[in-house]
Every structure is written in C-alpha cells, then in structure tokens.
Specification:
Chain A is mostly helical. Chain A is 60% helix and 2% strand. The radius of gyration of chain A is 20 Å and the shape is globular. The chains are: A mainly alpha (256), B alpha+beta (299). At the A-B interface, helix 1, helix 5 and helix 11 of A face strand 6, strand 7, strand 9 and strand 11 of B.
Chain lengths: 256, 299
Amino acid sequence: MTGPLLYPRLPREEGRKLLLGQAGMDLDGLARSAQLDHPAAAPAATGGRPVDPEKLLDLRDTIRSVAVQAGYPGALRRGSEQLFDRPCGTALFERMMIVPADAASEDVWTFLSLVLVPEIGPWRFPERAEDRMLGRPRNVMRRLWWRAWALGPDLDFSPDGCTPFGEDEFVGIMERPSIGGNPRTARAVRDAIWRLELARTGFGRSDLAREVTRRFRAFMSHIAVDALDDRELHGLLDEVGVAAVRAISINRDRQA
Amino acid sequence: MKQTIAPFAVPSTDVVNHGGWRLGTADGEISLPVDVEHWDYQTVLRLSAPVSVDRARALDEAGLSPDTDLAVLVTVRSDHTGCQRRVALVAVPPQARYDLAIEFELDGHDLGGRLDLDTLLVATAPVPARALAARRPASILWRARHRTHLEGQSSRFPTDSAEFALSRPSQADAGWVLQVDLTDPDASFMSSVRLTLNSGQPIVQDLLRGASDLRTAFLRRAINWDVTRQLALAALSSADVHDGPPDPDATSVAGVLRNILAAVWPHDEPTVLRRRLQDDPGSLEVHLQSQTRLFAAAR
C-alpha cells in the first residue's frame, strides 16, 4: 500500500462513552475487546486512502509486540517507561504512513487508543487520565509519533558516548512549538545537547537541556534560524551550550 | 503580529514593500483569501508575492555596511499541526532597490487550520558599520505576517454535539459542556478547549438544524455568555495567564484566554481581576452579562 493513509476518526464524545464502558475492565479484558473499526469512526473525507483492516491489524500487532518486549502485561517500573515509549514512537512513525496533518487530529488517536489497542493506554498510564486515553496532545501514542517525526525516526539512537533521550528531554523540545515544530531545529538542539553530554561538564543532561532550550528560544526572537546554514546553526547552539554550562555553574556556586 | 524588540538597530518598516500573497488557481491568480476553500492534505498551493526591498536605506538605517548580505526568508506555520518550515530564501541582489518575485509551492501534508506566512528581511552576513548594528548571521531586520485558513477554520469555535443520555448519563438534562484543558498552557487553544452541545435537548436540536427564532436566538446568547464566563474564570484560575498586553496572534490556550480577558475587560490586568473575583465577584458577573449582551434580544 503506497501513499498517505487516512485513519478512522472517533469523535471525543464517542471516545468518552467508550472510556466509561472500559473503566472497570482489566488489561486482559480490554485487549479482548479490541476492534478494527467502530460505527461512529470514519476517516477524513479527502486527502489520502482510508487504511484497510489488514494494515490496522499489522499496526495493532506491532504495538502489542513492542509492549510485550517492554514487559506487558507486567507494570512498567518507574524509570523504565522509555523501554516502551521510544520503540513505540519509532514503530508508529514507520508503520502508519500517516501525514502530519492527519496525525494532528485528536480523533485519529482516540480511535487507535480506545478501539484498536485499548489495553495499551491503561497499561502505560495506569491512572487512566483522560488526556492520556483520548487523542489529545498528551495521548499515550500521539505524543510518541510526533517525537519520532521531529527527532527520529529511531528514538533509541544515540551517538557513541551518549544515551538516548528521556522523557524530560523529549518534553523540553516537543512542548516548545518553535523548536519541536521544525525537525531541523529540533534535531540541531538535540545534537547540541548530546555534544554537551560528550563534553562531560559534570552537570546533569536534563538540567543542561532545559537551560539550552530556554536560551536558544531567546535567540529565536531576533535570529531567523531557518536562514542559518548548518554550520552557523551548530555554532550558535554551541555558544548557547557554553552559556548554559556557565549559568548552571554560577547557580550551583551560589547555592553552595 | 506580536511586536518583538530586537537587541540591535532595525530600519523603518517601509524599507520593504510586500505586495501581498497571490494564490494560483485554475482560473488564474487571485489574492490569497481568508479561507482557502476545498483544501485537503493533498492540495498543493501555488503562492507568489512581489517584495520590493530598498536595500540601501535598509542597511543605512540598520547601521550596516553596504557589504552586508541580505535575504528575504519566508516561513509557514500551521496551528493545526504546529509544523513550521522554510519555504523560500531569496538573496537580495546588491542594488539600491530591488523587486523580488517570491514564488513557491506548498504541499498540504503538514498543514491545516490557520496558516501563518511570515516574510522576513534578514542580514545573512551582517557587517556592522555602527555600534548598535546587528552582528549575528540571520539577524531579523523586518518582518510581516499574512494569514489564511485552510479547511475553512476562520471563525470556528471547537464545537461538537452528542447525546448526553448516552455519553454523560448523570448529566442528561444539561444543555452543553465546556471542557478546558490547562495542563499545558502552550498547547493549541483549538485542541485544548471543546464545547459539546447536548443533542438530546430538543431546543439544541433546533439550533443544530439552523432554526432561527426567539428561543434559539436566546439559547445562542446563553451559550455565548456561559462559554465566555467559563473561559474567563478558567483564565483567572490559571497562573499561566499573565498580566501584560494581549497577543492578537496567540494560538496557545493561555494566550487566547488572555485575549478573552482583554476583550471583556480591556482596562484591567488579570491580577486586578483576580482580586476583584475574591472581593466582589458579583461585579465581574454583571459585567459579563452586559458585555456578552445576554439579554439584548429581549429588548
């Protein structure tokens, strides 16, 4: 199957109805209730080819396989969530053949989360918060697809001497639209953070990442990042990195 | 467009004349409309604009040497996807004044909703001639924003309908529900706020069918008043809605909520309104009724 695929869209209120019905179900019950369609779900009228059931089945099997590798149905230990998140984001991005315009639709992710693989959201987020189960920006799978779009597709990749990004670092980039909305910029910031990691500054990478993104955004108010060539962008981010290290160091000295 | 104060000298706004965007259609070029009809993800938009740059004056007023390289950069951003990208970067030739023809094709795979087209004059390789001149590559000297809506989203409040007897059985007699998600103040307003009308109510059914009578007119005003009220209270309950001038171009939930407060109370900062909510909540309520013209139809 070639070309962009359009996924079924389940409206929010239909999603809430499903959530109500799924509230008391355990993971096994949820998995057995999974379907490939829903009477209230339909893809966008135009813009691509509706996904067929075989593709949905393949996607479901892939997501479940990633979850099993990460320990499903056993609970994810605190700090090990990326064992699921990173490979799932990569798999979603590589398998779905969905365009960003459709991936920005809440109703697409509501369908996937509550109809196709209804056990995955509650397993990953046992508190079953509505904004994780419905297809809003923090949805269990939606946020992973967008990470792979901006920073992947291989979210488990890291250069020698570095480690893959964790939740704080992903969120720090993706929840800054001026950075996370542009893959070139997002990857440049990511690479700058990895360079700081290689420099062994002695400071935590999450703290460095936070400081780098904050300072870089300040530059973006009057520097057109899209007009910089790669060398210039790299240089600017390294300058920001040096300033970030200095700022954290000064702060630490003050607190000592 | 929000005004940004650059940490270097910038020229007057009239050093660049942007002739406006033109959209190529089967019947020839038209001015880019407010709403691009019949758009979907597979639509490729052909856009062009004449941009005239008074290079000599721009450089002189910005304190830059005539050796400085300038370029016109165009970027696009969709509020539906949050995607942003460069679509054109055109060098300004070393002539005193030059008319550029900016042209590009925009495919729709990462767009939708509100589309912002930003045109910037940037010093790609600035050579400062005075102390306050820009020094960094890609310093922004001038900018303009144009806007259109794809999928006809120009004036839509995020709204849908459902039968509450099925989705909210304990609230089956309600008329509507407004959901406001403030967990991420930078998230898009359109994805963080949703008004759902109860299609189980006969009067709501009439409204959804397009009925236009005194009952449905008052229902519309009641919904408008209540939605405005709830959004105002949400804004006042959020530490992420700050004092300061509202940004008319805001699309984030915090930004739009600030705009709503400014529309209802143009002379009061959120801090003042929060105190008033504590000390004299009735004054806010009566003002809201008046501003939303809740009873205007009854006159």
